[in-house]
Each structure stands twice: as C-alpha cells, then as structure tokens.
Amino acid sequence: MDSQRIRQPALAGKVMSAAQAATFFHNGMTIGLSGFTRAGDAKAMPRALADRAAHEELHFTVITGASLGNGSDGLMAEAGLLARRLPFQVDPTLRKKINAGEVMFIDQHLSETAEQLRSGTPSRIDIAVIEAAAITEEGIVPTMSVGNSASFVEQARYIVIELNTSMPLALEGLHDIYLPAARPERKPIPLTAAVARIGHPTIPFDPEKVVAIVLTETPDSPSSVLPPDDETRAIARHVIHFLECEVEAGRLPHTLAPLQAGIGTIANAVLHGLVDSPFRNLVMYSEVLQDSAIDLLDSGQLAFASASSITLSQAKYAHFLANLDRYRDKLVLRPQEISNHPELVRRLGIIGLNTALEFDIYGNVNSTHVGGTHMMNGIGGSGDFARNGQLSIFVSKSVAKDGAVSSVVPMVSHVDHSEHDVDVLVTEWGLADLRGLAPRERAVKVIEQCCHPDYRPQLRDYFERACQAGGHTPHLLAEAFTWHQHYASHKTMRLD
Amino acid sequence: MDSQRIRQPALAGKVMSAAQAATFFHNGMTIGLSGFTRAGDAKAMPRALADRAAHEELHFTVITGASLGNGSDGLMAEAGLLARRLPFQVDPTLRKKINAGEVMFIDQHLSETAEQLRSGTPSRIDIAVIEAAAITEEGIVPTMSVGNSASFVEQARYIVIELNTSMPLALEGLHDIYLPAARPERKPIPLTAAVARIGHPTIPFDPEKVVAIVLTETPDSPSSVLPPDDETRAIARHVIHFLECEVEAGRLPHTLAPLQAGIGTIANAVLHGLVDSPFRNLVMYSEVLQDSAIDLLDSGQLAFASASSITLSQAKYAHFLANLDRYRDKLVLRPQEISNHPELVRRLGIIGLNTALEFDIYGNVNSTHVGGTHMMNGIGGSGDFARNGQLSIFVSKSVAKDGAVSSVVPMVSHVDHSEHDVDVLVTEWGLADLRGLAPRERAVKVIEQCCHPDYRPQLRDYFERACQAGGHTPHLLAEAFTWHQHYASHKTMRLD
C-alpha cells in the first residue's frame, strides 16, 4: 500500500478484504454509508454485505448522504438487507420495495439527518463506511462527496474505510469539514460567503474506532443526466430572462445571488443555459454540482462553486479528475448539513432551482410521489432551499408520457412544497412569477403561463367552477383528483 | 404633551388628530401597520382611514406584523380599504371578504415578510404607522409588540406615530431591536441564547420622515383564549409526559430546549400544564406570549421569555402592566424576523408547539383552510418553527362541531406542513411520535393514538384498502376527501 494513502502506520494492519470487513456487521445494526447523489459512495461493503445476506439473516437501518451509485441500493434491497433506509434514493429495485411497503423509507430534508443523528433520533450509528482517497495524520480525505460522512464518523462506534485508489490524491484539500457543535453550546456558523472555508480539509477521526480498511478502485457511477432538448432549452430561456429582469429592477445584483440547482436533467439544462447569458462572476452554493457547473467554471462565468458532491457524466468525470489542479481554487465540498443549512441558505440569500414532478394552480409542488402514492426518489434538499432561500424556482416540462400526463393539475396529489415556499414556476411554455399574489391571482398565472395549451381549457373550467363555489383557495374536492383518476383508468389526463 | 413621551422637541409640532394625519394617505399606497397578535397595533389610523373611505376611493396594500385588534381589520375591510393584505389576520369580516375573493390575502411565513420588503417584493412601504409608548432621542419605544415595525420604519417614505398614553413609560427597555443587514454584507446573527440582547432598546428612525404624531389611549384588545377544559388538559398531559420521556432518554436536558407556542387556546393550555410539571428553569423563544407565559414566570418555572408580542386576557394585561418591573429582567420583545428566524430557530433547537385544524394519517397538517378552501386565519409563524426547529409538535382536539368533524382524516384538504416537518401529533386521546417512521408506520400510530375512537374504524378501513392498492404513501384518490364531502352534504364526517 502506498504510504501516501495511509499516513498512519498503525492503521496499515487494518487492511483486509470486504468479505472480512463484513464480519463486523451484525443483524439489526444502523449503518452510515458515505455517498451523495452517487458520488463518493461506499462501493465494496454494500456488495459484500449483500453476499453475506445470502447465507444468513441480516437487516440494517441504512443511512447515507443521499443516493448511492453502483447499483448498491438495488443489491442491498434485493438481498433483503434494508429494513429501514434514509434519507434519499434513486434505485429502481429499492423503489419497488419501498412502494410495496417492504422497505421502510424515511424521506427527509437533507439538512436534517445529521441534526437528528446528533440528538439520538431514531438511533445511533453502529458502523460508518466511508470512501476515502487517503488517510492522513489528521483525518480522512473524502472523495467526490462529503454528504453525512463527517457526522457518521463522529458518531459511529466503529469505522470501516474504503480506500479508493482510483481517486487522485490531489483531491486532498478540496473539502472543508465543519460540523455545528451540540446544543446549547452552538455558535453561529461563521460562513458569510460561498467561497469561505471554515473547517478542516479532512474528517477528524479516532483511529481506535477503525476496524477495517478495504481497498477499492471502482469509479463513481456516471450521472444519468440527459442532454438539453427543445423544452429544457425553453425553460432555461424563461429562467434567464426572469433573472435579467430582476437585475434590471434592482432586486438582484449583476452577479445574482448564490445559485442552487437540484439534481437532474432540467436543472442541469437551466444552468447550462447560463453559458449563453450575460451574467458573470456567478457563484453556486448548492448540494450537488453536475456537468453544467464544470462547463460554467470552464467558460469563466462561474467564479466559485460550493457543494456537498460532484456528480458527472463519464466524459466530464475523466476531464475533471485529470484537471483537478485547474479547479482546486474554485471549488469546495462541504458536509450536507452545511451546504443545505437553513442558517446559511437564508443568510446567503440562495436562489433555489428545483424540479417538480407536478404542480397545481395555486403553486403547491409535488416533488416525489407519482400518482400521489408511489415514491420516485425523495424530497432531497429541495425543501431546505425552497423554504429558506431568497427565491424559490421550480421547473418542469408541462407534460409527460407523450402528453398523456399534465404536470400542471388542479390539485397536486402529494404536497412536498406548499405555495408558501414557491415563488416562481416554469415550464417550456412560460414562467409564472407568483410573488405577492393571492391564490386566485396565482391560478390565472399558472394556467396561462405554464400549463400546456392542450390542458388549459379543462384547467380554466375547473378553476372557474371552483371560484363559483368560493373560498380563499377555491377547489372542488369531488373533482380535485379527477385528472389523476382519469389517467389511472384511461391512460390520459385529457377528460374529453 | 408630557416631555417624557416626546423627547425630541422638534417633533412636538407634529402632533395632530388622526383625521388630519389621514390626509397623508393616498389611494394605491402600501401601508405598514404595527401590531402582532392584536398587541401593539396601530389603533387610531385604521379607523380614521375607514372614515375617509366613506367619502372617497381609497384602496391600500396593508402589511402588518400579524393580526390587529380593535376590530381594525373589520373596519378597513368593510370600508373597502383593503385591496391586498398580508401576512396574517383573524378578523371575521375580513375573513369573509378574503373567502369571497374580494380582498387579495397573502398568507405568509411570518419570518419572511421583512426579508421580502428588504428585497423590494412586492412593493415598498409608503407610510408606516407605529404605535409607541414614547419617542426618545434615539428612537421609537414600541408597546406590546415589535412585529415588523422596525422594518416598516426603516423602509417607509413617511412615518406616522401613534403615541399611546395608556402604555406605561416603563415599557422602555423591554425591546431589543436588531435587523439583519442587506445582502451580501449580512453577518451571522450574534444571538446564541434566548436571553441574549443583540440590538437597541428603541427603533432607530429618521425624524424627517415623521409626518404626524397621533395621540391615543386605547388599550390592546384582550386575547380571546378560552380556559383549559378536559380535552386541552389531556393534551397537555400527553405533551408533558412525552417531554419527560425525552429527558429520561437523554435526548433533552432537564431544562428542555427553548419553547415556542402558537397563539390560541390549546397551545396556551399545554404551556399552562407545565405549571404542574417537574420542569424548572425553562426558557421560551416564541413569537407571542400568552397568559400561560406570565403564569409560568410567576410560578418561577419559566426563567426567561423572548417573543415578538405579548397578548393577554384583560385581567392578566392589567396585572402585567402594573407589575412591569417584576418582569423587566425576564422578558424581551424582538422583531418577528428575529423571533422566527430560521438561523436562530435551528441554532437554539426550538421545541415548536402549534395547533392543527386537521391532520392526516401520514402526518400532513392543515393549519389554515376549513374544508380545504376557506381561510381561517393564516399559517403565521408555525412553518418557521416546524421546519427549522428541533422538535415539531402539532396539537388538536380529535373532533370539532360536537363530533361531526374529525380532525384526523385520510388526507388533509390543504397542506400547510408536510409530513417532513411534523414530528409529533397530539389529541386528547394520545400522542403519536412519528420520528424515524415511514408513512405506513406513521399511519398506524396516528390512527390508534390520535383519532377519536368513533372514527377509528372508518379510518382503519381507508388505510387498509389504500395499502392494498400500494405505494410508499398509500391513498385512494377517489376517496381521499370523501369525509369532507360527506360533511358538506350530510353535516357529519361519519360515513355510516
């Protein structure tokens, strides 16, 4: 083993196979795995534990930063390992088991998990499994994400380190590890700009807790983001035009405010659209950086980016790792408690850009539940930013399933973000600025600006009849979900 | 005029009648009125403006801290003065006009109004009307609330001061005025404990902006809180037992964490129940203090209380004002932006206690909309505390309308707080601790612990059939609002 990878000689003896390390895990334990939006995830141990589960009863509560890559969630779900899983996932196999009620999934604001662990709810971490690029004299060097790793290491009884030799040692110094103290000794978080460093480059740890070091060389799974298309480009144009108007009105400076963008194709496309915008010296204060962030750094429009993970396509991933030195001064990765912290999101005045599955005429947003019942991925950090930021923008294509599903509905079938937390809604058709408007005013904007023209007549019809029935937020409860029911029975939300 | 009330001689000449002051107001203006939960509200100008509106066209956007007393909202609504109103109200006449779509009401998290004004959305304040106990050399001494007054004064073009001579001069020193700077110069808010003072005792102002000083002597409207009854006492017992268990489990210290309690009968009763609890040296960090807070200060159990307003019954109000010196060191009133600020709510680890109108089997809470459509009061500060606090508790009686309405329903007809923000639900029947549970697990707790026994069979029936249909959050969209529809047509939610 390269002595640069393990700089505490006493730990060299802890190197073992994943199968050996798996013997430290016992049925019923709570496990904290590194990994956030498939970046920096523990790669060997999920597989080794799934192998063990073929021969014996093994059920865990598994907590991560956010989603894992490498099919790990699917493997663990298939093996029956996952009794309880939080706070986020994106795996098709796991999704199926969650929706069948076989895995208890706790869908959680990503800033809250660390806080809850600190207060001992629901349970303490037994073993932390953390991917690292190196172990220095001072601490663990994370890889492409920080997520909840620092909290797991702080609180776990035992630590397993997955030392990934495919990760360049140059990652050292990219991270800024700061965790709030336990209350009541907690002080203000001393961060007043996205570029600030307030902590340490490595995760401090107690070497006595390390029970195993497992060597891996598996890269992160590439992101599954699709390239921009006509609709996402139109959405990007609307958002950028809106931001230009905000600057013109004097409500935002020319450098805007720190940007957050949720994971996924549309948010990535909107950010990508900034390449052609007049904005310069932008900064991001986000939870995840996608390809678009690297392109904006390359184009010079983005001056600095702070996040908790970097999730890239295969090509961009290779480019990034090969050119780390170019990005070193322009990037920082933080614990997700800090990237998403209400204190900082409010102080910095984040502009939050997140994706809606569907939204309704009053601006309530469903980010998670297909048909109101079936979990897609999870709320992620969208609530941290939408509630506490300066501007909360949600984007969606106006229709899905070749037009059979309208993303703009009379009433969302599940509420993740209430109208209180939604300032601006955007589809390829237009942008509805809902700030300072009462519900009846919001409805007109949403219908006329965002809804697909094919669905506008039936949405106007609903709204007009609801207004006749009265109320601050007019609805016809007997018809509020008719569109969803019609899709379930007729495979289209078109009522005629 | 007592020179103690106006300590800037140049301002003495600005004293005039409310009718004279009313001539400074023009159609279409945006007005900021002091007042929070009926405490410290501007009392003379709403009436004078309503009188003027009898003779001429006058429509305003009226922004307050929270609700006004003295029937002011009703008077203004009746006179057609209110084109737009935010962020909270409790007036029956205004409510009717809101629900008829005649007044555009923007229901807003109470921490956000000041932030939006600072960024110029939706409009700047033309005239601020602020109730004061005195005008010192340094600033305005507010009365029984601070609310958004400091923000209004900072941003308004003109200021009208209502000098209320029934308010004791001894109020001076009770307030702590601190406002965050505009971004990007914003620093951490230097408050690390509920007792801390971080600002000035008066609201700084530009004397040039003062166009009128109006003398009043009207007291605040008394609170309309009902005395505890069997149900509210039972709810209090459940909450206190839960908190005792948290202390025993080591998740809370013996002094608990700073307490927030929403306005209203049930929250007041729960706090009142603490008088008989084993807890000592408690502190409150809340938006409003009701009778219960004064009783807890008197009993010695509450060591300190921070809020944005004090709203008391007639008897307690007289007692409080006559004994101000006794409370001087145990109380502070802050701007609502600070009392409800996400940064501070998270840092201090507030235990939030708020009232639900209805909640559903998965823990979503409706705080505002009767039947999903008709506004009752507004979300107030509940979202500020529920989202960012350490523990979010919602309380409600299990039934209303003599048992014809169940407060526990299959799906709430309006979502103010999604299940992500709701830790604990309580009715007189019991307490459901939902932390760390998946939706299907939450439903069992809510049904068996909180629902009135008369409604449990039909709620179990819904949940069981929904589970057969599947999903992470099982629902039957065709039946989700059947209970509400049945109440509309049959005046009962009982389906048999």
Short description:
By secondary structure, chain A is of the alpha/beta class. In chain A, the strands form 8 sheets. The first copy, chain A, has a 7-stranded parallel β-sheet with strand order 4-3-2-1-5-8-10. In chain A, strands 11-17-22-26-27 form a 5-stranded mixed β-sheet, with helices on both faces. Chain A has a 3-stranded antiparallel β-sheet with strand order 6-7-9, covered by helices on one side.
Structural class of chain A: alpha/beta
Distance from first to last alpha carbon of chain A? 69 Å
General form of chain A: globular
CATH architecture of the largest domain in chain A: 3-Layer(aba) Sandwich
Helix segment count of chain A? Answer: 17
Low-confidence parts of chain A, pLDDT < 50 over ≥5 residues?
none
Tell me the fraction of residues in β-strands of chain A, as a range: 15-25%
| Name of the CATH class of the largest domain in chain A | Alpha Beta
Domain Acetyl-CoA hydrolase/transferase N-terminal (chains A, B): 10-214
Keywords (chains A, B): Transferase
Binding site for CoA (chains A, B): 377, 381, 401
GO biological process, one term (chains A, B): acetyl-CoA metabolic process
Descriptors:
homodimer; 496 residues; alpha/beta; Glutaconate Coenzyme A-transferase; 2 domains; 7-stranded parallel sheet; 5-stranded mixed sheet; 17 helices; 19% strand
Describe what this molecule looks like in 3D.
The structure is a homodimer of 496-residue chains. Chain A is of the alpha/beta class. Chain A is built from 17 helices and 27 strands. Chain A has a 7-stranded parallel sheet with strand order 4-3-2-1-5-8-10. In chain A, a hairpin with a 4-residue loop joins strand 23 (399-400) and strand 24 (405-406). In chain A, helix 3 (72-78) packs across helix 4 (92-99) and helix 8 packs parallel to helix 9 (291-299). The longest helix of chain A is centred in the middle third of the chain and has 19 residues, at 230-248. Chain A is globular. The mean pLDDT of chain A is 96. At the A-B interface, strand 4, helix 13, strand 21, helix 14 and helix 16 of A face strand 4, helix 13, strand 21, helix 14 and helix 16 of B.
